Protein: D-alanyl-D-alanine carboxypeptidase
Organism: Nitratireductor mangrovi
Amino acid sequence: MRAGALRTSVAEPEGKTVRRASFGSSSFGIVSRFLTITLIAFAFCGATSASASKYAAIVVDANTGKTLFASNGDAPRYPASLTKMMTLYMIFEAMDAGKVNKNTRIPFSAHAASRPPTKLGVRAGGSITVETAIYALVTKSANDASAAVAEYFGGTESGFARKMTDKARALGMSKTTFRNASGLPDSGQRTTARDMATLGIALREHFPHHYHYFATRSFKFGKSRMGNHNKLLGRIKGVDGIKTGYIRASGFNLVSSVKTGGRSIVAVVMGGRTGRSRDAHMAELIREYLPKASTRDRGQLIARPSGSKGAVVAGMITLPRRDIPTPKARPEEEVEVAAFAPEPAKRPRAEVAQASDAATEIRNSVNGVDPVKTASTVVPGWTVQVASSPNQQEALSALSRTREKAGDILSKASPFTVPFELDGVVYHRARFGGFNTKTAAWNACAALKKKKIDCYAAEQ
């Protein structure tokens, strides 16, 4: 089955293809159960039209892809912290690609540390491991950890959100757009119950070796023990995750995965008036539709994406696989983001003219690389940029790795870093200078690409 293709049953109570039936005893049972679900849904979202307008639900057979129940399943809704399911998908993908491991450190910028609760409370300059970030997202639903992960993998949170949206499209989530990694309020961040079900199934199918994290009941961070917000874990047989969510605009949301007796479903409820009513509605959906799920597993339902426009490298903003000449007046990061974004990229703040004291005192050699200079000491001309990172050491390491792999291509080029500020965070471009003409820089970059080194030419 192609990515995201979840089939719909003929008994779907959205009014599209409901069968007509006589009022025999069997029909009465069907009507009775439908009325039960409807009444619970009414209580779940409250009596007001404002609450009702947030409601959406879907139940999908995770063995076959068949939709067992749907109400407003394709209507746009705010995902709230269900967003973190995609943030976790991106982490798991990077782990499987060998870009990071569970002990890799994730630094916290001032932006990440300033995110509102719920949060871990890590100060700017601090860091946590990848595994701690996973636990924090699954249980505490920590917004500061989400932002730190986004900046580590995407350079900026908005840039990472565009990568999340690209991934959603690749999975078949055609009606989902992410604007941040946490689910904090943003009018442009939208999804549907069906898209969230697709993501839930994708997490189960693509990362069975990581999926156990979603069943974590609690974890200890420092002196605090943080419990999972998903209250159905341990209360309903077969529930093994996945995620809760709430902002005022969305109401109370929940995606649940259930697997027992050979049957498997993923269910989504959105727009609850309270967490308790949301949980009660989810429990009723599970009770009603799990017995109707098939015990015959038809194999993978969500195709794994075959590739992306740029690879994620730990801590780095990687480059699109094409040359982009960039004049002084247009910082490269705006172009990098635009290559991934469906909408115009936000212009970054003015570029920092000189490096900070810490940046200007870069040691004379890094793993065999020639002395590294700062932007203020590099002569004007054309350069080749190979990476950009919020971590200066990562930028220096990128220069070292590139020089080693490039061989004679960059033998006469001078490595240096250029600091710039974006959304209050200082990043560092990793560049090689000393090219007298645009053609020389472009030719060098073309040769690097033959060695599978991402780059582009830029005027210093």
In short: Residues 25-45 form the longest helix (21 residues). The two ends are 49 Å apart (CA to CA). The mean pLDDT is 78. The chain has two domains: 7-292, 332-459.
